[in-house]
Design a protein that fits this description.
alpha+beta; 15 helices; about 15% strand; globular
Length: about 500
């Protein structure tokens, strides 16, 4: 991303009210208002013709006037909170800057982004401080005049008030303000943004999620909706090259795929098979980038732990040079995948799944019993893999067997995550023990992934007439670490597989 990009979060609530009248209501809360500052703001909002960005809770605008004139992309980031990504106005940007346009690719789904509305705002803003004189919030009073754009236009005007946290302000303060306003008959605005209010008639009304509350189908679909949101959040993180973004996107991909595979009794597997395949494809596109992140962090840490006298030659420079190239190539591959039609079709398929889930007859059954049966099947699969690994000898074969165990354990872990709300404390305790099993197996796999890279670096140092001693030492340390994991694994498995631990699902 360009250095001109700015990012900040905003936490605010909007009300239909007169700001001057609200000022009198804030006195009992110990808040004080500075004299107001006035601004004239004008903004052009851009979206697809059918408002795909707005439907996803996203707004893109070009604003003039005020201290933050520029391009603004606002992304949902939880209740009352949005993340704003800004870019300054420049003469060449008659269209959104490429950095912001890239972040709209997934929600726009290939639709053309064009102006859809003009909104002018006469703004007065008061800074609110607490009894200690600390800034805690802004009270913003807006007189809004808005007009849609296109072949036919509509115009509307209204007045609204925003309370936005600043400085040391907290969500608890927003709750106190809202309670005070509610007693005076002032309530939240129905729309989440000015653009949403302007286009309220064109936005779909919310409907109850498919599946009876408390049913197995409702539990699975709740989980899948959460992972779909995380997939879309991860998409933005990866495009912005945010640290750990690839990990977040891959994790959501795996969780959704594992849930679909584990709960074939609840969702018809014949109807979800194609989506499972496409989620597997996406995960594989992310594997190299994530593995490189893990390798770089792991080897850098181990290198820094070595005494200086054991680091012979420019080891750090060799490591950095090799992994930077690998990281750059892996990122290019990830962005190519995210820029392709196949990726957008995958998200279309997710939308169809969430809108019309292929629920089976078992989906109507109570979640506590039905989900436990699916967890039991995933457990038996993991158990078989673990027993097979125990019978496997030889480093290479055992590494492969433990990797297969890890994959089964991951599916089990994500299946348990779905079942925890219905399974209660027993399910949650098992989840925590399973997380430890997953951590140990993950440590082993990280070692497996690292060792070939270390060997390659050592061979390259030798071929370039350098000193490969330190790389040989690092390889030995990784091998010893894998041996220690082999010793640590049996007690972890024993605690996980106790009858008391698995009783909540094994009796089904």
């Amino acid at each position: 991303m360009s250095g001109s990009i700015t990012t900040h979060g905003e936490t605010e609530r909007t009300y239909d009210a007169d700001p001057v009248a609200l000022l009198d209501l804030l006195g009992p809360l110990g808040l004080h208002a500075a004299p107001p500052r006035s601004e004239q703001l004008a903004a052009v909002y851009l979206d697809t013709e059918d408002l795909r960005l707005l439907r996803a809770g996203i707004t893109l605008r070009r604003r003039t006037g005020g201290p933050d004139a520029g391009w603004h992309l606002k992304l949902p980031a939880g209740r009352d909170h949005r993340e704003e990504i800004g870019h300054p106005l420049t003469p060449e940007h008659t269209a959104p800057p490429a950095q912001l346009a890239a972040l709209t690719r997934l929600p726009a789904r290939g639709g053309e982004i064009a102006p859809v509305a003009e909104i002018a705002t006469e703004r007065r803003q008061w800074e609110l401080t607490d009894g200690a004189g600390q800034a805690v919030a802004h009270l913003v009073g807006d007189q809004v005049t808005a007009q849609t754009m296109g072949e036919s236009t509509t115009a509307e005007s209204w007045r609204e008030v925003e309370v936005e946290l600043t400085g040391s302000g907290t969500v608890a303060l927003l709750d106190r303000i809202e309670a005070e306003l509610g007693q005076a008959g002032v309530h939240r605005a129905a729309a989440k943004s000015k653009l949403a209010r302007l286009f309220a008639a064109e936005l779909p009304a919310s409907h109850p999620a498919p599946g009876r509350t408390g049913s197995a189908g409702a539990a699975v679909m709740d989980y899948l909706r959460t992972q779909a949101e995380r997939l879309r959040t991860g998409d933005v993180l990866v495009r912005r090259d945010v640290p750990n973004g690839v990990h977040q996107l891959r994790l959501a991909t795996r969780r959704m795929r594992s849930a679909l595979q584990a709960y074939g009794r609840v969702l018809d597997p014949a109807e979800t098979r194609d989506l499972v395949r496409e989620l597997r494809w996406l995960g594989r596109q992310l594997d190299e980038a994530r593995d490189t992140e893990v390798i770089e962090a792991r080897l850098t840490e181990k290198l820094n732990e070595l005494p200086a006298e054991l680091v012979l030659g420019p080891v750090d420079a060799q490591l950095t040079r090799s992994l930077q190239r690998r990281r750059r190539d892996a990122r290019d591959e990830v962005l190519a995948a995210l820029g392709g039609r196949r990726y957008l079709r995958l998200h279309d398929a997710i939308d169809r799944l969430l809108a019309e889930p292929p629920l089976t007859r078992r989906a109507k059954r109570p979640a506590s019993a039905e989900l436990a049966r699916s967890v039991n099947r995933a457990w038996r699969r993991t158990e078989r893999r673990m027993l097979a690994a125990d019978r496997t000898h030889g480093r290479v074969n055992r590494d492969r067997a433990l990797h297969e165990t890890r994959k089964a354990a991951k599916r089990l872990r994500y299946a348990v995550e779905v079942a925890v709300p219905a399974g209660g404390r027993s399910a949650n305790r098992f989840r925590k023990r399973l997380k430890e099993m997953h951590r140990v197996l993950g440590e082993h796999q990280d070692s497996v992934v690292c060792r070939p890279v270390i060997r390659e670096l050592g061979a390259r140092a030798h071929s370039e007439r350098g000193n490969g001693f330190t790389f040989g030492l690092l390889y030995g340390l990784e091998s010893a670490h894998a041996d220690r994991i082999d010793v640590a694994l049996p007690p972890v498995w024993e605690r996980l597989s106790r009858k008391k631990s698995i009783r909540w699902f094994s009796r089904r």
